[in-house]
Amino acid sequence: MSETIIIDGIVKEFPITRDNSIRVLHGIDLEIKTGELTYLIGESGSGKTTLISIVAGILYPTQGTVHVFGTDIYQLTDTELVNFRLDNIGFIFQQYNLIPTLTSAENAAVPLYAAGMGRKEGAERGRAILDKLNILDQAEKLPRQLSGGQQQRVTIARALIHEPRLVVCDEPTAALDAASGRRVMDLLREVALAPDRAVIIVTHDNRVFDLADRILEIEDGRITHDGKGLPDGH
User: Fold this and answer.
1) Residue 220 sits in a domain of what CATH number?
2) 34: closest CA among 67, 4, 68, 56?
3) Averaged over 16-40, what is the pLDDT?
4) Which residues contact 120 (CB under 8 A, 6 or more apart)?
5) C-beta of residue 200 within 8 angstroms of C-beta of residue 38
6) Number of domains composing the chain
């Protein structure tokens, strides 16, 4: 099985009227390697979230292909794509998207439940990963009883619990204080350093730029920087 994510000629257009559309991504070509922590930076509206949503199999491209570990994901049927994501991809959204009637441990275990695991066993696994994120004491609480930062960590736990080979994150430290954000990014880096996993993170958080193996900058739907360090002017 391929150990990379190949993004080839990705174009994304969104309709604005019946006869017109706006092009958000302009032929993106990238190779993302496993064992690396890749940051994607850029101004609001530059195309960051659109790009990672396409890489994660959530948003279909207008043109181009995405091969995730050798699988051309947009040649899969809808059902095959859902199952592929369940097996291989974890996505950490800006919005928490927690289920209000489930506890933190149960929310963390949602991917396991979707794969057929029993509720009790899933909740036990949920508590274990919440412990790694230092919020085991919140395991039996409902989302409305949690702070924003605590909800974000439950969201991160949910993305990591099934040990996906690709983890895609949209501003995972946005709601966290400096210490909590650093702890979360350290954990994500630990995941990325596994030889068969890759982590792509959209972030503006300059407190954690030093953890990246690679920094990509996107501007107006085009990659303008690709390197170990920050582009000039940052």
Assistant:
1) 3.40.50.300
2) 4
3) 93
4) none
5) yes
6) 1
